[in-house]
Amino acid sequence: MIERFIKNKWLGAIFLYVLCAISYYDVLSHDLMIDDVQFIAPQQFLPSLSLSYYLSHTPSMHFSPGYYIFNLAAFQMFGNDPVALHAINIFLHGANAALFLVLVNVLTGKPAVSLMAALIFLLHPVNAFTVNYITANFILLSSLCSLLSLIFFSRYARSGARGRLMASYAFFFLGLLNFEGGLLIPLYILGILWLIEQRPFRAILKDLAPYLLLTAGYVFLWFMTASANAPIADKLIAQNISFVDYLSAYGRLIGWYAGKLFHAAGVVYIYNLPAVAGNGAALSLAGTAAAFIGLLWMCLKKRNIVSFALLWLMSGFLLVFPAIATHVNAMGFVIEPHWLYFNSMGFCLLFANAFLAGKRFFEPRSMALIGSCLLLYLLVMTKYTNALSQNEERYYEYWLRASPGNAIARENLASLYIWDETASVEPDLINEMRIQVNNYETAGNASNAALLMRRIETSPSFR
User: Fold this and answer.
1) Mean pLDDT of 107-120
2) What Cα–Cα distance (Å) separates residue 214 from each residue in 64, 95, 174, 209?
3) What angle do CA 353, 357, 361 make, to 5 degrees?
4) Are residues 199 and 326 part of one domain?
């Protein structure tokens, strides 16, 4: 039965899309949240209706003309209808799961591993926020293009068909034009050739060279258009953060996210922590170094699909290295889980491969029962995560509880309490709101300070 899903290119995709719809249909009725409100007035988000404008200008620190052009087309077709915008994200997530199924089957030739990996990715609650967050469609678009690039290259590596190679180049660059996370695709190409195809190093360099040239071209375009909007180094210098402190915080955030792959509770839009100091810094630094040394050893000594899955998972943190400093002035180091949507596929492949290795110890019926229970658990957790994103009040309260002291969550929730008369300040968040009152007063915003204090004092739980 599993072989039928894989061999029939439409049957597997339809099955995954049906499951995606079951998992996320409730998202269609959700409100806009955080900076999704930019889609209400897209004239600010999309300052021009000219396609050529986005090839030479960017309103953000990212050079992603594909993202802006895609949303311009969506706006022209659907306006600012949140139902349609949520439906686009659900469709893209289902497409990514289907393409992931195809890619793993091409790389491993194991239908059971392919289907299990795709199901875990589709249902894993760590990715639920990305699907709920309309603005994150740049991650979904980039992942779709990156998967297509890897699929075409993998098939080229087996067949030598030049047309597939050209398609891989095209989708690779298109992925970059949506989000710079695609910069890691050459590393995954290297992994396919070295770890799976086991090609000699000289042949690998020959196949890799065009991807590196395309990468250099994208970086040049980024410097020409967006680099002035991303003064990350200046932010770090202004905070007087040592390189050791930076590496320690980086390791701590990697540990936080890796833990969420096993238990996704507490995944929020931005999770923050201060610079790690003392013994904690030493342990964090040692753990990070050990993890990457272990990965290097695996890639040199164990050339197989497990090493490739580890490479896929852990290399995704490389681009987080500069990105965690983005908001450092406001709240310390941060991680945004949607940055890691694509490399969660590496975890899903690794887990599926390890899980199905258990068939040596368990009967098929037992394996099917355990696997079904696991997938059902992931589905329930995804539904729970969806419910937390139902409206802004519920999400901001959850966010502030998961990441106490988070300046963005606190300010957004305070603003909602001020202007939404139906909202009520929760008892465990009163102290956070008092901090925001002080922040308003320090900023000279006496009006908001008075309004928020009145909401605190009229809260049923106020003492």
Assistant:
1) 91
2) 15, 25, 11, 9
3) 160
4) yes
> What is the distance between the alpha carbons of residues 232 and 337, in angstroms, rounded to a whole number?
19
Domain count, the chain: 2
- Its domain, for residue 447, covers 392-457
- Asked if residue 462 belongs to a domain, the reply is no
Q: Look at residues 333, 364, 388 and tell me which one is the last residue of a structural domain.
A: 388
Residue 77 lies in a domain: yes
Q: Last residue of some domain: 335, 365, 388?
A: 388
For 46, list phi and psi in degrees, rounded to 5.
-120, 85
Shared-domain flag, residues 174 and 150: yes
Q: Are residues 400 and 378 in the same domain?
A: no
Q: How many CA atoms lie within 13 A of 438 on its CB side?
A: 7
Are 376 and 382 spatial neighbours (Cβ–Cβ below 8 Å)? no
Q: Is 33:395 a contact under the CB 8 Å cutoff? A: yes
pLDDT digits (tens, 9 = 90+) for 375-419: 999 999 999 989 988 888 888 888 888 888 888 888 888 888 888
Q: What is the DSSP string of 284-307?
A: HHHHHHHHHHHHHHHHHH--SHHH
**Structure tokens that stand for 48 in this block:** 């021009």
Give yes or no: residues 314 and 382 share one domain: yes
Give the tens place of pLDDT for each residue, 255-277. 888 788 877 777 777 777 766 66
Per-residue DSSP letter, 444:
T
CA atoms within 13 A on the CB side of 275: 16
- 140's tokens: 């979904």
- H-helix or E-strand containing 333? strand 333-335
Please indicate, yes or no, whether residues 50 and 70 belong to a single structural domain of this protein.
Answer: yes
Q: How many whole angstroms separate alpha carbon 70 and alpha carbon 306?
A: 35
Query: The whole model's pTM is what?
Result: 0.89
Same domain, 233 and 308: yes
